[in-house]
Structures are given as structure tokens and as C-alpha cells.
């Protein structure tokens, strides 16, 4: 009705077969998960007045709003202007005749450098919210989680970071707050990058949340177990309609919110570093994109044939989309099992 569908302004048929078939597929399907998880936990979670739960729901809802606006702007918004090169800004500061203009340019230089940094990592101006703008909202969510991870947990656990495999605790004190911020930003964007193939992000999320479901249940955190169970149930319903060929796609409203919540769940389970194991497919997705962006901007060449890495597999090995999704799903399942094995070895050692 509202024509909220995937639009492609570039002909991908010369690069990846069948990608153009996604044009016209409805997006924002992640609303199914967002609405269900938010209201079920707000009203029916056994500890729905818990401050920890309310912080996670705040992070979840804020990220969903950010993603929803981005989805709508990508369809109805205007094309954003390209960034001015930083060298040009510096040159204007040195040669501009108008003193007030030079002062304004000097004051805007940190913001210009900030935007340029994300451009170097691969961000390109489009119709939606740009990467450097998203980070600001994601930072609010990240610092909210950091506050909860330090001030809303038992005093004997404040500032402690568990190192899996080594099974040691490091007291990083208040540094847990910026660490939580960084984790939210990275996981949010990692899940967002994985939402490019039918069924890929949803299947990986089910395994990631599944690992933390077992951990939270084993630790007796029933409110967290209930929250994760509603996420997995909602994702399973969504995946039924997202298997190839997808009837609708998750969109940023789902990927950004579920990525942020995944980071929050890991901290509430006191196992944030387990994300590196249980959510390893998301880690390599994010790393491949960063490496590709740096390679293009600084080295002038591509490291991968296409990023994120699942497109590289599709192009380099001539795999079908279904084969890529299935094999990455198997990797996700294996890493979930491996992560749980590490957790129980640490627990009983």
C-alpha cells in the first residue's frame, strides 16, 4: 500500500546474477520481530519492571526507530550531496578572503574529518541516514548499555570482563562503559551488513541468540531467557517468509535493532566477548567490509571481489545465493556449538 519496497538504482546483473530480482520486494519486515519482542516483554516478561530489561528495550526501540527512518528515507528521500574532500576544506581555510567564512570552516573541520573517516571505511552518501549520523544515535544506545553494564549489575561484578577460553576475569572498571558503546556500534552494523541475502541475517541471528539463550538459562537469568526466547520465536516466524525467494526483507528497522539487542544480551549475560565466538559470522562480515573500504580508499584496490564477504563467496566461487546462505548458516551453527562448549569448559574448570 505504501510502496515500501526495495529499489535498485544500479543494474547488478553484470555483477551478481539474480540480485535485480530483489527490486520491488517489500522491506521493513523486521517490524514483525520488533513489535512482538517489544510489547510481549514490556507486558509479560516475568521481570517487566526490571531496570536491566527496560534499558535493553530502550536500546532495542531506539535502534528500531533509527532503522525505520533510514528505510523510509532510502525510498522517499533525496540524494545526499557528496562529501567535500578534506584537502579542499583546508585549502579554503588558507585562501578564503572572508574571515568569518574561514573561522566557520575551521570550526567545522573536526566534523568534516569525522565524516571523511567514515567515507574512508566505505560509507557513501545516498538517500538514507549516513554512517556518521547513525553512529551518533547508536552511541546513545551504546552508552545506555554501558551504564547498565556497570551500575545495574551486582557490585561484585562491576567492571569485570570475562575472557573466554583463558577463563579469567579482568577488572577494567569504568572502561566497561566505552567497551559496551563500541560493542553496540560494531554489532549493530555487522548485523545490518549481513542483511543482504534472503535468510542470511535471520538464520545467523537465531544461532547467535540461541547460544545466549542457553547461557542465560544456565545462569538462572529467567527474565533474559524469556527475552531471548521471544526474539528467537519471532525470528523463526520471520524466517518462514524470508527464505528464498523472500516475500519481504528485514530492512534496517530489524537489523539495527536486533544487532543492538544482541550486544545488550551479551552484556546482561556477563559474556560480551563470547560474541567473538558465537557471532563469528557477523564478525567476519564487518571485518571484510572495513578491510574493503580501507583497501579502496588508501590502496586504490579491492581486497575482495565484493564486500561484505558473502558476496565475495558468491562471485569468486560461483556459488548460488542459497548455497552461500546455507554454508554460512552451518558456520553459524558450528560457532554456536563451539561457543557453548567453551562456556561449559570454563564453567566447570
TrEMBL record:
One CC-aspect GO term: plasma membrane
Molecular functions (GO terms): metal ion binding; phosphotransferase activity, for other substituted phosphate groups
Membrane topology: Multi-pass membrane protein
Domain of life: Bacteria
Co-factor requirement: Mg(2+)
PROSITE patterns for the chain: MRAY_2
Transmembrane segments: 21-44, 56-77, 135-153, 165-187, 199-217, 223-241, 253-269, 275-295, 324-344
Keyword Nuclease: no
Binding site for Mg(2+): 192, 252
Coiled coil: none
Location in the cell: Membrane
Keyword Protein transport found: no
UniProt keyword annotations, A-Z: Magnesium, Membrane, Metal-binding, Transferase, Transmembrane, Transmembrane helix
Record GO biological process: cell wall macromolecule biosynthetic process; cell wall organization
Pfam families noted in UniProt: Glycos_transf_4
InterPro entries listed in its UniProt record: Glycosyl_transferase_4 (IPR000715), PNAcMuramoyl-5peptid_Trfase_CS (IPR018480)
PANTHER family: PHOSPHO-N-ACETYLMURAMOYL-PENTAPEPTIDE-TRANSFERASE, PHOSPHO-N-ACETYLMURAMOYL-PENTAPEPTIDE-TRANSFERASE HOMOLOG
Protein name: Phospho-N-acetylmuramoyl-pentapeptide-transferase
Species annotation: Candidatus Dojkabacteria bacterium
Amino acid at each position: 500500500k505504501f510502496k515500501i519496497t526495495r529499489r535498485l538504482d544500479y543494474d547488478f546483473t553484470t555483477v551478481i546474477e539474480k540480485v535485480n530480482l530483489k527490486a520491488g520486494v517489500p522491506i521493513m519486515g523486521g517490524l514483525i520481530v520488533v513489535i512482538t519482542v517489544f510489547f510481549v516483554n514490556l507486558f509479560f516478561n516475568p521481570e517487566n519492571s526490571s531496570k536491566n530489561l527496560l534499558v535493553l528495550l530502550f536500546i532495542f526501540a531506539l535502534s528500531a526507530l533509527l532503522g525505520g527512518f533510514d528505510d523510509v528515507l532510502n525510498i522517499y528521500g533525496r540524494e545526499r550531496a557528496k562529501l567535500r574532500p578534506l584537502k579542499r576544506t583546508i585549502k579554503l581555510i588558507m585562501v578564503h578572503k572572508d574571515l568569518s567564512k574561514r573561522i566557520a570552516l575551521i570550526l567545522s573541520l573536526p566534523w568534516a574529518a569525522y565524516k571523511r573517516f567514515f567515507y574512508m571505511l566505505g560509507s557513501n552518501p545516498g538517500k538514507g541516514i549516513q554512517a556518521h549520523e547513525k553512529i551518533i544515535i547508536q552511541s546513545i544506545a551504546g552508552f545506555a548499555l554501558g551504564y547498565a553494564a556497570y551500575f545495574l549489575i551486582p557490585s561484585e561484578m562491576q567492571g569485570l570482563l570475562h575472557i573466554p577460553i583463558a577463563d579469567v576475569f579482568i577488572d577494567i572498571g569504568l572502561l566497561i562503559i566505552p567497551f559496551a558503546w563500541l560493542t553496540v556500534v560494531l554489532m549493530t552494523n555487522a548485523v545490518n551488513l549481513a542483511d543482504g541475502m534472503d535468510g542470511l541475517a535471520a538464520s545467523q541471528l537465531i544461532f547467535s541468540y540461541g547460544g545466549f539463550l542457553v547461557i542465560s538459562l544456565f545462569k538462572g537469568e529467567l527474565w533474559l531467557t524469556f527475552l531471548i526466547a521471544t526474539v528467537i520465536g519471532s525470528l523463526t516466524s520471520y524466517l518462514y517468509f524470508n527464505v528464498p525467494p523472500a516475500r519481504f526483507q528485514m530492512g534496517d528497522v530489524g537489523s539495527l535493532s536486533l544487532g543492538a539487542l544482541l550486544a545488550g544480551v551479551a552484556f546482561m549475560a556477563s559474556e560480551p566477548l563470547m560474541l567473538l565466538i558465537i557471532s563469528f559470522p557477523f564478525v567476519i562480515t564487518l571485518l571484510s567490509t572495513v578491510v574493503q573500504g580501507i583497501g579502496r580508499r588508501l590502496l586504490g584496490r579491492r581486497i575482495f571481489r565484493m564486500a561484505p564477504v558473502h558476496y565475495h563467496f558468491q562471485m569468486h566461487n560461483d556459488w548460488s545465493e542459497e548455497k552461500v546462505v546455507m554454508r554460512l548458516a552451518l558456520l553459524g551453527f558450528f560457532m554456536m556449538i563451539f561457543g557453548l562448549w567453551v562456556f561449559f569448559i570454563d564453567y566447570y574448570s
